Amino acid sequence: MTTDFTLHPMLANDCIEIYDLPLCKVLLMNDSQYPWLILVPRKPALTEIYQLEWQQQQQFLNESSVVSELLMSMFDGDKLNVAAIGNLCPQLHIHHVVRRKTDASWPKPVWGQHPAIPYQQETLDVLVSKLQAKFAQIAP
Questions:
Q1: How many domains does the chain have?
Q2: 123 falls in which pLDDT band (50, 70, 90)?
Q3: Predicted confidence (pLDDT) per residue in 102-121, tens digit
Q4: DSSP per-residue letters across 83-140
Q5: pLDDT given for residue 99 in this prediction
Q6: Which InterPro entries does the UniProt entry name for this protein (predicted)?
């Protein structure tokens, strides 16, 4: 992967890096209200999916599907929200958020509804270990 890639400071501040897939860096959003992973293609200066080369777009879709299936199997959600918004953070990043009818924001989008509640360190350590182990088993 390219050495010109750097993670945007907003993502670095709000997330925990947990795994590198062939194209994307996998981040865990530090908000314990929702199981929430973010994929960031490790390519410099991208703001939109169409800016990826065709083969990279296919790889991204594969990686997004892996993340989606992993999240829903681990967290048994009612719905999975997948979104590339980027209004505040311009670096291309794609959210994968497990939603439950009982979560704090249901049925509204998670953005702007409630302040983030960071994970307690012990809970975070366990979750990151579980996610890393799952990715190591199933990653493309």
A1: 1
A2: very high
A3: 999 999 999 889 999 999 99
A4: E---SS--S--EEEEEE-TTSTTTTS-STTTS---PPPHHHHHHHHHHHHHHHHHH--
A5: 98
A6: HIT-like (IPR011146), HIT-like_sf (IPR036265), HIT_Hint (IPR026026)
Q: Distance between CA atoms of 103 and 107, rounded to whole angstroms? A: 8
Whichever domain contains 89, its CATH number is 3.30.428.10
Asked whether residue 83 is assigned to any structural domain, the reply reads yes
What is the mean pLDDT of the segment spanning 67-73?
Answer: 96
The Cα-based distances of 133 to 78, 89, 137, 139 in angstroms read 24, 29, 6, 10
3-state helix, strand, coil in the chain (%, to 5): 35, 20, 45
Please check whether residue 3 lies inside any domain of the structure: no
Task: Please indicate, yes or no, if residue 111 is contained in any of the structural domains.
Answer: yes
